[in-house]
Structure formats: structure tokens, C-alpha cells
Amino acid sequence: MSVVTLKHWNDLSIGTGQPLAVIAGINVLENLELALKVGTELKAICADLGLPYVFKASFDKANRSSIHSYRGPGLEAGLAILAEVKKALDVPIATDLHEPAQAEPVAAVADIVQIPAFLCRQTDLIVATARATAARGGIMHVKKAQFIAPWDCKNIITKAREAAPDLQVVLCERGSSFGYNNLVVDMLAIGEMQRLGVPVTIDATHAVQLPGADPRTAGASTGGRREGVPIIAKAAIASGADGVFLEFHPEPDKALCDAPSCLALDDARGLLTTLKALHAAVRA
Fold first, then answer.
1. What is the rounded distance in angstroms from the CA atom of residue 158 to the CA atom of residue 241?
2. Residues with Cβ < 8 Å from 80, sequence gap 6 or more?
3. Taking a C-beta distance cutoff of 8 angstroms, is the pair 240, 20 a contact?
4. Hey, which end of the chain has fewer CB within 10 Å, N or C?
């Protein structure tokens, strides 16, 4: 196990002996007002609880089930919104990317640059992101693919650090494919990935997805089990996870992406309070 640190943010650290890290926000950027509303509330909650906070939002969801699904404002407009949130709220930013050419502009804004699960074996993307992120002292947050074993993440870490030896890496558990249209989370995977020498987070939001199984759209979008998010989050923290990745919305059913999986913003304080207590109990 190890610790990674954002030096530009009061040495915000994730890993062994550190407070529970909270990477949370909205699934995809809808507008600046919503981003500021959610970010302001989550920052205040984490400040009250003494938890390090990173605002998360995607500028583009490039892997939507349907070509007609909302993807976000795109790279240029999305990064502008994220930069405004970063400045207005004085918080670090996490966002994901999909193509090697996006690495430099994204790393210039985001302090934590995220590799989507489906893309974690894409060598060109890993190399470009590793170099751009390391050059700015950021952290590369890699979601474990739904189709690989936790110990196979060693190859991702090795590949990234061969490209950028000083790179800071965090792995993220987000469930594994279990037959058709279903995911399960093996809590033993958290410890397995930590044994690779990196901190590990839990993406409780996407772990409850039902890929391609939203009854509202007859399979044209991904379904989810919102009520399972707290269960997965609590189980993962009890299993030793170093941080939690969550997505919220003031009106979850109206979210433009992955509505069945995101939590109500009003539920954030209660859940994070519980997760902090669990984290403290496990580390004690």
C-alpha cells in the first residue's frame, strides 16, 4: 500500500494512514449552475467531516449505449466549466478522457485524470495520460475494467510508469461483468489491488449499473440500482478502500446520464458520515 499526494492542494493525500478521500460530483456536466450547486454542497459536507474532497464531472460520456443519448458539452466547453468550478470553489478537479490527444488539455485543468474502465488497456491512452498527468504532479485514477482480474492491473501500472516513472496512480474498483446486463463487486479485489502498491477507491455509483438494461428505454441505455450504492460503498470501505467515488444530483431521476445509478444530493451528508465512521473503525 502507498500514498499519493496532490502537492498543489494542501498536500491532499489518498492512501495508507490518510483520511477517507471523497471524489464526488455529477456524472456528466449539464451546466455550470448545477456543477456549482453540487460542488458547493459536497465541499461543505466534506469540510464539516474533515474529509479531503475532489469535485468530479465528465465533459463527455463517449460510451453511451445510444447515439442519441446526452454526452455532455464536449472537451473545450466542458474544460471551461471545470476550470470555473475549480476557481470558484477552490477544489481539485477529477474528470475522465477518452483519446490520447485529450491528455494534455485535460491534465492542464484536472488534478486527477481518470481512465475509463473500458479503456484501461489502451496503451496509447495510458501512455499519453501518464506523461501529461505526471508532468503536472497530478494523479492518474484508473478504473479496473469489468473484464479483467484485479491482479492483472499490475500490467496497467507497469505500462504507465514505464512511460512516466514519477507517475502517481490510484486504482478504482467498479464491478465485474457477471453474465449479461449485470455487474458484481468482489470485495477481495480491493486488497488484491492494494497489494500492487497503490491506493484503491470504490466507484459505488457505476458498480450498481445494469449495462444496457434500462427498462425506460427498452435497453437503449444503462439501467441501475440506486438503492445499492450505499451498500456497495459501505462494504468497500469496510473492506479497506482508501477512497470513495460517488455521483449525486438534486433530482436524480432528471439526470441526463445514468439517472438510475446516481444518488440524491440530500443523501450525501448521511452517507459520507457513515463512511467516515466505517473508515475510522477499519483503520483503528
1. 21
2. none
3. no
4. C
HSE toward the beta carbon, residue 44, CA cutoff 13 A: 10
Q: Give, to the nearest 10 degrees, the angle between helix 268-283 and helix 229-238.
A: 20
Q: Of 27, 43, 60, 203, which residue is the catalytic one?
A: 27
Note the pLDDT tens digit of each residue in 257-280.
777 888 999 999 999 999 999 999
Given the residues 96, 214, 242, 258, select the one marked as catalytic.
Answer: 258
Burial 242-276 (b: 16+ CB within 10 A, else e): bbbbbbbbeebeebbbbbbbbbebeebbebbeebb
| Residue 12, CB-side half-sphere exposure with 13 Å CA sphere | 24
SS3 200: strand
What global pTM score does this model have? 0.94
Identified catalytic residue from 43, 56, 61, 143: 61
31 in catalytic set = no
Show the cell assigned to 198: 497503490
Instruction: Say whether 242 is catalytic.
Output: no
For residue 48, indicate whether it is catalytic.
no
Q: What backbone phi and psi angles, to 5 degrees, belong to 23?
A: -110, 105
Taking the C-alpha atoms of residue 85 and residue 64, their distance in angstroms, rounded to an integer, is: 25
pLDDT, tens digit (0-9, with 9 covering 90-100), for 199-209: 999 999 988 87
Look at residues 131, 130, 100, 106 and name the one whose alpha carbon lies nearest to residue 56: 106
Q: Which domains does the chain have, with CATH numbers?
A: 3-283 (3.20.20.70)
Burial class, 180, CB count within 10 angstroms (exposed 0-12 / middle 13-18 / buried 19+): exposed
